[in-house]
Amino acid sequence: MKKLFVTLILASALALLAACGGGVGGDDVQEVGEQDLPTPVPTEEVGAEAARSATNSPQATWDNYLRDTIAEQNRIRDLTVGLIQRYEDPELTGQANQLLLNITLGEDRSEVNNTFVDADFDVRVEYLNGDTETLTCTYRKDFRLTENEDGETIYYIVNPAPLAVFALCQ
Question: Which residues contact 5 (CB under 8 A, 6 or more apart)?
Fold first, then answer.
């Protein structure tokens, strides 16, 4: 009985060593080389100054609006970060580290027609603590067409607003 018990323990130990790659079975351990990090998707820095406007082309109006809505959000974030950095005691809450610092525009896959835009684009957000993440934004924006005094149709955006990153993007 004792011999059977010792044999079972020895067999279990050998099976465990073989499963863990402990030299039984002849498999060589291969070293893993340095892993390449994925190449970051190129982004466009739109800054914090919104200076474009509606045009007589739906695509040009969307392109202008997309950049301006991000720029407006960047401007608001600049003001918020500055205020918190000046007045918050970092030892108490550390709220500033979790603040959104900057938004850059990634790929724009939006589909534009004469009456609305099915927005679908990526943004890269950078936080004050240095973390970054890429989010995809999807929503619909409608155009309001108005004729100007020169007889041109101008494509205005209905309810323009700064990009609500955490409401529209995930």
Answer: none
The Cα 27–Cα 72 span in angstroms is: 59
Alpha carbon separation from 146 to 63, 141, 154, 161 (Å, rounded):
18, 16, 5, 19
Considering only CA atoms, which of 136, 69, 89, 134 is closest in space to residue 108?
136
Q: How far apart are CA 89 and CA 162, in angstroms?
A: 29
Looking at the structure of the chain, the number of domains it has is: 1
On whether residue 50 sits in a domain, the answer given is no
d(CA 89, CA 156): 44
Domain that holds residue 131: 58-168
Q: What is the pLDDT of residues 68-96, one digit of tens each?
A: 999 999 999 999 888 888 888 877 666 66
Model pTM above 0.85:
no
pLDDT digits (tens, 9 = 90+) for 109-159: 999 999 999 999 999 999 988 899 999 999 999 999 999 999 999 999 999
